[in-house]
Specification:
Blueprint lengths: L1 H5 L4 H8 L9 H10 L5 H12 L5 H10 L4 H13 L1 H12 L7 H13 L4 H15 L3
Helix pairs in contact: 4-6, 5-6, 7-9, 8-9
């Protein structure tokens, strides 16, 4: 119960946390079923929590990867992707603004910015589209 009081966990995460503490004859699956039945354990809520916490710092690819690591079902991940992709351009711009704040001056600096943003899980096409928009805003008419 202490685990669930701190934050939402997926069923797979909670199972992994409980298994080292299971005594002979204890049924972890029955406990997980009971928690889910009482609506204390929900993969949907766990996925929503991860998405809302990570949205402003990471891209769609990294968030989807983290959800998979937490054992969230693929159909729940697929349901979250459209929402993430709609706001990815704004998210990449916010992360870029916080880290760099100015358009790259040369190819080396642009490569550095692209690598950083890709390491945060943003798709290359989104990163390049945002950098082109920044360059066009900063160049005189």
């Amino acid at each position: 119960m202490q685990c669930l009081a701190r934050r939402e966990h997926s069923r797979a995460e909670l199972r992994a946390r409980l298994l080292p503490h299971v005594a002979e004859g204890d049924d972890v699956e029955a406990l997980l079923d009971e928690l889910a039945l009482r609506n204390w354990l929900s993969d949907e809520r766990a996925a929503e929590q991860v998405v809302s916490q990570r949205r402003n710092r990471f891209g769609t690819q990294r968030i989807a990867h983290e959800l998979r690591q937490k054992g969230i079902a693929e159909n729940l991940i697929e349901a979250a992707l459209p929402q993430l992709q709609e706001t990815e351009l704004e998210a990449v711009r916010a992360v870029w603004q916080k880290k760099f704040g100015s358009a790259p001056r040369d190819a080396k600096e642009m490569a550095k910015q692209v690598r950083f943003l890709q390491s945060r899980g943003f798709a290359l096409d989104v990163v390049l589209r945002m950098l082109r928009a920044v360059e066009s805003e900063s160049s005189p008419p």
